[in-house]
Amino acid sequence: MGSTRLPWAVGLAVSIAIVITGSAFAYAGALPMWFAAGNVDKGLHFAMASALAFFTDGVLARRALVPGKILLPLAPVVVLVPVGIEEYLQRLSDVRSSSIWDFTADVLGVVAGTLASRAVARRLRGTVLRGR
User: Fold this and answer.
1) Residue 79: exposed, middle, or buried by beta-carbon count in 10 A (0-12, 13-18, 19+)?
2) In this structure, are residues 46 and 105 in contact, taking their beta carbons and an 8 Å threshold?
3) Comparing C-alpha atoms, which of 23, 85, 17, 76 is closest to residue 49?
4) Distance separating the N- and C-terminal Cα atoms of the chain
5) CA 124: distance to chain centroid?
6) Beta bridge partners of 53
7) In Å, what is the CA distance from 124 to each residue of 9, 42, 71, 73?
8) Of 19, 46, 75, 109, which one has the fewest beta carbons inside 10 Å?
9) Which of 65, 72, 58, 77 minimizes the C-alpha distance to 120?
């Protein structure tokens, strides 16, 4: 991995650590009740999915799912597959609940994070090309 992708990788590692920690606390029933109140959890789903997609897209250098054929970015697939599986498996938990609205927040977050990653990459590329 080139040094230009190192910040993306560090951000991804931190994001994954936060998601895993939050998920572990949720499965342990150790999260405060206000996380579920007033759709706060939807905002958290959006924010964390966005961060995961943002940094994953950077680490993957904005690769497409099928290079040269389909313009679908790879990062959303890499993020949404495990997130979707985890959301579905929450149905098996006594302390978690599976929700289409949580997954919708995840999908919207992934779209926002991927778009933001690409905007930042374009901006950084423009800065490098201008010699700054």
Assistant:
1) buried
2) yes
3) 76
4) 23
5) 21
6) none
7) 16, 31, 21, 19
8) 19
9) 58
Beta pairing partners, 73: 64
| 95-121 pLDDT per residue, tens | 888 899 999 999 999 999 999 999 999
Query: Shortest CA distance to 86 belongs to which of 31, 48, 38, 115?
Result: 48
What is the pTM for the complete model shown? 0.88
pLDDT tens-digit profile of 10-69?
A: 999 999 999 999 999 988 988 887 777 677 889 999 999 999 999 999 999 999 888 777
